[in-house]
């Protein structure tokens, strides 16, 4: 079997990345999962070309320092396997900070997850903030008709962040924390760090967790 054998199965992995693992960058994360899949001897499919790479695709990169509770990753295989049988094998090879939550088969012809990604839900907690002040800051931000920000990597250009903020609300059971639902994907993506800066709270120590990603995919 060659490395360019066509894939026959596509699996979707849901996993968490918390604790010290949140400081692993995206490129290192991709290499990490490749090593795990090789160690458990999953029959990975590879790309074509001079330097074939395992076909592994993330829904969205996590910024360094941000934890993820339900991250998504697709992998392509050269022969079909029973996904549930591989969950404990993978789990046994994960270091602290990683956990496998689900592994299921999805249709081979589904579009790339990046193209189907629509929203991301974050939880942001500040260590030193009066809950009443936090609520006031959130209300003031949501009351604005527009929030003009410089574009990432293109500071000479601007965009309106406001329509990309779908919801922000305090979490009653977690004083000092808010939940944000933001637009995500290849178009009109909202960076959680931009929202925090627009709240005027970047300087206050805080922790960010991406709770889940929301996809809209066609029915094949």
CATH architecture title of the largest domain: 2-Layer Sandwich
Fraction of residues in helices?
10-25%
Question: Which regions contain 5 or more consecutive residues with pLDDT less than 50?
Answer: none
Strand content: 25-35%
Please tell me the overall pLDDT.
93
How many beta-strand segments? Answer: 10
* Overall spatial form: elongated
User: Which class of the largest domain in CATH terms?
Assistant: Alpha Beta
The CATH superfamily of the largest domain turns out to be Pseudouridine synthase I, catalytic domain, N-terminal subdomain
Provide the succession of SSEs: EHEEHEHEHEEEEHE
Please give the count of helices: 5
Question: What is the CATH fold-level name of the largest domain?
Answer: Alpha-Beta Plaits
Distance separating the two termini: 29 Å
Q: How many strands, which pairing sense, and closed or not: the largest β-sheet?
A: 8 strands, mixed
Protein structure class: alpha+beta
Could you tell me the radius of gyration in angstroms? 19 Å
Please provide a written account of the structure:
- It is elongated, with a radius of gyration of 19 Å.
- Strands 1, 2, 3, 4, 5, 8, 9 and 10 form an eight-stranded mixed β-sheet that branches. Strands 6-7 form a two-stranded antiparallel ribbon.
- It folds into two domains: 9-109, Pseudouridine synthase I, catalytic domain, N-terminal subdomain (Alpha-Beta Plaits, 2-Layer Sandwich); 115-215, Alpha-Beta Plaits (2-Layer Sandwich).
- The chain is of the alpha+beta class and 220 residues long.
- It has helices at 26-39, 83-91, 113-116, 131-143, 192-198, and strands at 9-17, 56-58, 67-77, 98-106, 117-126, 148-151, 154-160, 165-170, 177-183, 206-215.
- Strand 8 (165-170) and strand 9 form a beta hairpin.
- 21% of the residues lie in helices and 35% in strands.
